Each structure stands twice: as C-alpha cells, then as structure tokens.
Amino acid sequence: MLDQLIIGFDRALRTVFAQAQTVRPVPGASLPEAALSTEERRHAAALMRINHVGEVCAQALYQGQAMISRDTSLRAALSEAAQQEEEHLAWTERRIAELGGRKSLLNPLWYMGALGMGIVAGKMGDAWNLGFLAETERQVEAHLNSHLTKLPAADNKSWQIVEQMKQDEIAHADTAVRLGAKEIPLPVKLGMKAAAKVMTGTAYYV
Ligand SMILES: [Fe+2]
Ligand SMILES: [Fe+2]
After folding, report:
1. In contact, 75 and 69? CB cutoff 8 Å
2. 137 CA distance to ligand 2 centroid (A)?
3. Centre of ligand 1 from the C-alpha of residue 58, in Å
4. Ligand 1 centre distance from Cα of residue 158 (Å)
5. Residue partners of 146: CB distance under 8 A and separation at least 6
6. Which ligand is nearest to the CA of 61?
7. Ligand 1 centroid from CA 84, angstroms
8. Backbone angles phi, psi at 154, to 5 degrees
9. Which ligand is nearest to the Cα of residue 55, counting in written order?
10. What is the pTM of this model?
11. 107: CA distance to ligand 2 center in Å?
12. Could you tell me the distance, in angstroms and rounded to a whole number, from the CA of residue 35 to the centre of ligand 2?
C-alpha cells in the first residue's frame, strides 16, 4: 500500500511538473506556423490550456483507476489508452508553449480533484469505474469537437492536435465499453458536465 502511494505521488508530481513524453509524432508538427493576430494567439493558447488541464485530469483518472483496480488484465488493457493520454499531455503542453501561453496554475488542484473522483469511481468496482471512464471520454470528445469550431480558423497546428486527440478519446471510450463499462446514471453524467464546466471556464483564464 505504501509502495502504491509513493508511486502514485511520484506520478502526480511528474504529471504536474515534468515534461510529458510522446512516442507518436506531434500531429501537425510539420505544418508551418500560421500568421495569427495577438488576440487569436492568446485565444488559441487559452483553449489549449483547457485541453492540457483535461489531459492532466485524464492522467489522474487513469492513475487512480490503476491504483484501485485489482484486475491486472484490466490494467494492462487500459495501459495503451493511459499511454496515449500522456502523449496528449505532451502535445498540448508543447502547443501552449509554441503559442506563447502558459499552463494552468491550478494544475495540482485539478489533478487532486480528478484523482479523488477516480478513486471514488474505482471503489465502486471495475464495471462502474469503466462506466465513469467511458462517460468521461465521451464528454471530452464532445468538448474537443466544440474546440474544433472555436479555434482560430488559421490555426491548423492546434486543430490537428485536437482532431487526433478526439479520435483517440473515441477509441478510449470504446475500449472501456468493450471491457464491460456500465452505463452510469443521468444525474451523475450531469454532475460531471457541471464539474467540467467549472474547470473549463476557469482554465481559460487561470
Ligand atoms: Fe486525452
Ligand atoms: Fe482519453
């Protein structure tokens, strides 16, 4: 148990403070930087900051899931998705820097909040835990879809990242369903949406 806690704490620190790694190339990396106005650049950086916060939360959710679940085959089945979340973290972090923005100052807080939710879901058993993961991925997919229309039209580099992330999140939801996710009740879904709204609304600015 103590080992688990130490590993968990180490992961948390790395998620929030270290530079994430990517195996796949960053989507859109070969595209030229678009000529954006100062306002467009600021707006794109703020949207990518929100997406980065989302990925910090994804790290916490998957880490919480891995800490709690006793089923090693389940953990192995989810490890590919967790690995891709780390790539998303790397891509968004890099894009924020390219746009001259900064990451959310509240990342430790977002991480702790998501970890807490992940642990609560984990305690309810694998089927509910997977249900929570699947619903999270679906809500993230819808959110990323909205960002595809909100990003400055010329910002192809950010667009490519968000589009690839969306494709990955769809696959993650499918994986959770395939592994036996239960459909979580509507009030919980609405609660999650409300919490996500607070997070995205805040992360645009802080
Ligand atoms: Fe992601
Ligand atoms: Fe995902």
Report:
1. yes
2. 5
3. 6
4. 14
5. none
6. 2
7. 7
8. -80, -15
9. 1
10. 0.92
11. 18
12. 31
- Per residue in 38-97, pLDDT tens? 999 999 999 999 999 999 999 998 888 888 887 887 888 788 888 999 999 999 999 999
Distance, CA 38 to ligand 2 centroid (Å)? 31
CA angle 130, 135, 136 (to 5 degrees): 95
**Closest Cα to residue 137, out of 77, 70, 84?**
84
Angle at 186 between CA 136 and CA 139, to 5 degrees: 25
Q: Which ligand is nearest to the CA of 87?
A: 1
